[in-house]
Design brief:
By secondary structure, the protein is α/β, with parallel strands linked by helices. It contains five helices and five strands; from the N terminus they run βαβαβαβαβα. A five-stranded parallel beta sheet has the order 2-1-3-4-5, with helices on both faces. Strand 3, helix 3 and strand 4 form a beta-alpha-beta unit. Helix 1 packs across helix 5 and helix 2 packs parallel to helix 3.
């Protein structure tokens, strides 16, 4: 897949959760449009076309970002803050997909402009159903600006 064709940016440091997410998106035929990055720093490089992604066209923004909160280098809240603070990227729907159910994470995410906050279901079938529903809604039902 060409990086310019990425429609979903998956920001997830846990390989198992990333694989499950891809599997769930595949159920809705959305997996071919996913770019997976493994930490917040790589996510910012991809989104703003810097670092190893400096040759990517910054105007080709993802249609959806699935963002974990607890990640190495740059955490999800900082990534969210930078996305929502930049005029070029602030309209990208961002769904926090995390294991955290802490009220402070939920409140802070919404203060920073997250579009949806979803706690990862623990059970496999529930996880697959939640992520496939998310992907279907944000990519096929929702009308972005």
């Amino acid at each position: 897949m060409e990086l310019e064709e990425a429609e979903i940016l998956l920001v997830e440091d846990n390989p198992t959760d990333a694989e499950l997410t891809m599997r769930a998106l595949k159920r809705k035929n959305l997996a071919n449009q996913v770019v997976w990055v493994k930490d917040g720093a790589e996510a910012l490089d991809f989104i703003f076309a810097t670092g190893e992604y400096e040759h990517r066209n910054v105007d080709n923004i993802p249609k959806l970002i699935l963002l974990d909160l607890r990640m190495p280098k740059v955490d999800g809240l900082e990534v969210l803050q930078k996305i929502k603070a930049d005029e070029r990227t602030n309209s990208i729907p961002v769904v926090v997909l995390t294991s955290s159910q802490e009220d402070r994470d939920i409140v802070e995410s919404y203060k920073l402009g997250v579009n949806s906050y979803v706690s990862k279901p623990v059970e496999f079938d529930d996880f697959i159903e939640a992520v496939s529903t998310l992907g279907f809604y944000w990519m096929l039902i929702n009308n972005p600006p």
